[in-house]
Amino acid sequence: RTHHVVVDEAGNSQPLYDDSFDEVLPFHPPGLAPVRRGNTAWHIGPDGTRAYAQSFSRVFGFYQGRAAVETEGHSHHIVISGEELYPERFDWCGNYQGGFCPVRSQDGSYFHLNLEGQAAYHERWNYAGDYREGSAVVHRDGRATHVDRAGNLLHGKWFQDLDVFHKGLARARDSDGWMHIDELGHPKYHRRFQAVEPFYNGQARVQCWNGSWQVINELAETVFEIASAREVDAFAAVSADLVGFWKTQTLCAAVELGLFEALPGSLEFVAAATQLRPERLKRLLRALMELGVVELDQCGFIATKRGQLLCEEHPWTLADAAREYGRELGDMWAKLPQRLRGEDRCPEVFLEVVTSPDRCQKHHRMLRSYARHDYFEVPKLLQLDPGNVVLDVGAGTGALGTLILQENPKVKVILLDFPQVLEQVTVVEGLELCPTDLQSDWSQEVPPADIILMGRILHDFYDDAALRILKTVHRALKPNGQIVIIEFLLPEDRASGGLCDLHLLAVTGGQERTQKELETLLGAAGFT
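The structure assignment produced for this chain is given below.
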């Protein structure tokens, strides 16, 4: 595309102007188009003449009277006269939509500019998209949500992926698949899909998990089938599930051999560091490459971003999880038939852990990694006042409590867990310890709490034990105190969470619960 043309009613075209360029883009109001010749770019009017004297290395269309331009490796916006809208320079600039524009600063963070070219708010994100219908999609720590024009969370719900709102509904993906949500962040329906499109006049095209394409209404009812499901090789699918343990055992073996600490390096270097024969090590490395945790480059074998999580010194290390799932927890799964028949007593896994100093340290380092990853946003959701007492029941080594103190340094956080666990905690200002068995009546051992946290605790216990713990929690709360429970809720209408529920039965004797089941427990414990 070297020039613009005008087309008459008969379909005949002729050049809009006499000049030509190496590249042209469409005209945008107020009637200007981006053009490029060699390494120089600018905007032209309908007659092909320059709109201003300045030149840039790349220019884009005008939106709301402002255009993104690039020069010397950085981006900014100009107005119609070619003058800069602001003096700052960014790594990338988007286009103005609805009075705002996303930009990426030179430190890699995203935010929005207002029409004056100023930051619209103080918050910074891992990604920010265009505003539409008064909100924009932003990403942080691998999750997505919506923000309003002031940069505040619109509904406070986070998803694995997300789209902007279209006529009051947005496409969203959680761990179960794609769906549509309303402006409160609530799912419009219960079904989940492999893919969904925005609604168009009350209907949307979706792809189901069996590969079929359908048209659904806003209740997710199928109104038309576009294409039937693909044929699935059932034998191959079941076979793949049966050998799933291969992955666990491969990762466990690599961690036990210290392979990730030996990277990067050549085959011979890693073989010497792990004391493995090169031909055997090559087979292990091939499997790890298949799993996406190791790759080969010009320097030899290196750990991928995923593989780095299996290094012992990674702040979110999963090395201990690899050992637990590959050894002790795997052995417990072997007794699942007895657990299901009720022929075997509930395991005392927590007592077994705390009575082994080495396992206790590694087990709780594993839990600390999960807590650091999963609970990052929790402190921001707690409405705490200075002087509040926060009791973390089953706190482990205090990952969540530390996050709370970092966000709210004027509160008191009490960690409650086995003495052997709390020995690993470094006490700082605002942090206190209550070493005890959380299944005992510890309500008199702590000061009355404003908030009691239970992060993935109740699912480790069957109903009778969970109820005893909740009754103790009720006694330990101040009259107007709150209990905050962090748990996965089993959906009433889907099978999601079934494998994790079986894992709890095999390992702790506990269970995942639906919202109704959890509410029943809370009611029996005296909560309203």
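Interim note for the steering committee: The first helix runs from residue 234 to 242. The longest strand covers residues 477-486.
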